[in-house]
Amino acid sequence: MAVDFGDHASGFRHAEVVRFINNEVLLNGGGPEFYAALRSRPWSEVEDRLRGVLADPRVPRAHQRACAWSALALGVRGAARQREQQGRRIRRLQEQMEERETAAWALASELQRMREAREDVATQLRFTRITLQQALMECDVLRGRLLQQAPCREPDAGLDPGSPGSHPRPKAALNRSAPLGCPSFPASHRSEGKFSHSLFEGLSSSSELPKKGRGRSFYGIFGPL
After folding, report:
1. Which are the contacts of 79, defined by CB distance < 8 A and separation ≥ 6?
2. Which among 118, 124, 160, 214 counts the fewest CB atoms within 10 Å?
3. What average pLDDT score do residues 192-214 get?
4. Which residues form the Testis-expressed protein 13 A-D N-terminal domain (predicted)?
5. Residue ranges per structural domain of the chain
């Protein structure tokens, strides 16, 4: 028997077809060897193997027909396997497409939300700009009123009008004790002069001083006597 009736991967849906193929293989002297050896191989290898059997003149004609029926069953099996693989690939692609569609919808919703937020911010910015312009205009009006109502300020006497915040210039202090045109001396110098004059008078009246005309001259503090 070439094809197993319970093999769902054989590609056959009807048991009568499987039975007929198995009978043809057995009647031509074949067995399950050819089918079992190539059941998991691609169709290209099955075809190459069948060509080798058909091209060999030593192989009987009946055995060639049995291999041909087995190759037919293997072709159906390969087509079923390929159809199943394509179905899995299609399902995987559909899942990926659904995931991408979900992500696209999420991105579209986020984009719409960001657009609405941008419009709200732009509206608030326009209102803020209008409010700021009104505040600046009111500030200019108030400044003009203050300038009109403020009195003119005269410069203070003793101040330098050219420099803001200047202080009164100090007047030159006059020495009331000294006469005009005469230099004034400190009290300490005047007291030293009195002491020197007293000392000179004491030395002059002393009896121990040498008399004039003795050939010597006495030099006091302020010069020769």
Report:
1. 11
2. 214
3. 45
4. 5-149
5. 8-114
